[in-house]
């Protein structure tokens, strides 16, 4: 049995990256988000929308901005389930979904490469706000030697997140947790401060 990382109950805000692979789970997840006592800033993934851009083999700059526009598109879809939208990197005291294109275009903080996807963009947002990051994927977490890693404190090879993500969150000391977003019970439990199965990334847990 993989070890479960520790979590601590609180009502502090948190940034939530909602992976595009969870497209068909958005309705249930939106309900969990809206019922949470914690203020959440949801960063949408690109998912199949970004995959359409990747298939075009555009130059790096064009692909970068086009893929971020697809994050806005997924964010607008999330909003149809009752989650208000914002284009500001801030916590308003309520749950909102971020449309990131405008602010990323303004700050242009990350390399223009497919090594940087919505994962690292979400980490950048969390870093700007000095908040923890919850990453929701369609898998339980990151495997190391074919077993679920409870805690990662160094670089590992994985396809669960983009290549820049783990080095970025470690460098910027962003406390990060990856859990399975298809398990809405786990998401609700985590947001309530209960222990759930997943992978933490960082050296300050």
Task: Explain this structure.
This protein is of the alpha/beta class and 205 residues long. It has one domain (14-201): Acetylglutamate kinase-like (Carbamate kinase), CATH 3.40.1160. The protein is 35% helix and 17% strand. The protein contains seven helices and ten strands. It has helices at residues 26-35, 47-54, 60-79, 101-107, 118-129, 165-171, 184-191, and strands at 14-18, 40-44, 85-86, 96-98, 133-137, 143-144, 147-148, 151-152, 176-180, 199-201. It has an eight-stranded mixed β-sheet, sandwiched between helices. α1 links the parallel β1 (14-18) and β2 (40-44). The longest helix is centred in the middle third of the chain and has 20 residues, at 60-79. The model is unreliable at 1-9 (pLDDT under 50).
Write the layout of secondary structure elements.
Blueprint: E1 14-18, H1 26-35, E2 40-44, H2 47-54, H3 60-79, E3 85-86, E4 96-98, H4 101-107, H5 118-129, E5 133-137, E6 143-144, E7 147-148, E8 151-152, H6 165-171, E9 176-180, H7 184-191, E10 199-201
Parallel strand pairs: 1-2, 1-5, 2-4, 3-4, 5-9, 8-10
Antiparallel strand pairs: 6-7, 9-10
Helix pairs in contact: 2-3, 5-6
């Amino acid at each position: 049995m993989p070890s479960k990382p520790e979590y601590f109950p609180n009502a502090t805000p948190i940034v939530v990256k909602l992976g595009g692979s969870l497209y068909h789970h958005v309705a249930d997840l939106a309900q969990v988000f809206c019922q949470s006592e914690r203020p959440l800033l949801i960063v949408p993934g690109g998912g199949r929308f970004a995959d359409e851009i990747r298939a075009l083999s555009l130059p790096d700059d064009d692909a970068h901005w086009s893929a971020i526009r697809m994050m806005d598109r997924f964010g607008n879809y999330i909003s149809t389930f009752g989650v208000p939208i914002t284009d500001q990197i801030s916590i308003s005291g309520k749950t909102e979904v971020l449309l990131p294109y405008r602010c990323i275009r303004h700050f242009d903080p990350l390399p223009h490469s497919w090594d940087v996807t919505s994962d690292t963009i979400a980490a950048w947002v969390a870093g700007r706000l000095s908040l923890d990051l919850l990453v929701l994927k369609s898998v339980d977490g990151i495997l190391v030697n074919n077993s679920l890693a409870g805690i990662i404190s160094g670089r590992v090879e994985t396809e669960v997140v983009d290549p820049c993500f783990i080095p970025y969150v470690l460098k910027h000391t962003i406390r990060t947790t990856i859990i399975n977003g298809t398990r809405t019970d786990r998401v609700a439990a985590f947001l309530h401060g209960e222990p759930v199965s997943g992978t933490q990334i960082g050296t300050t847990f």
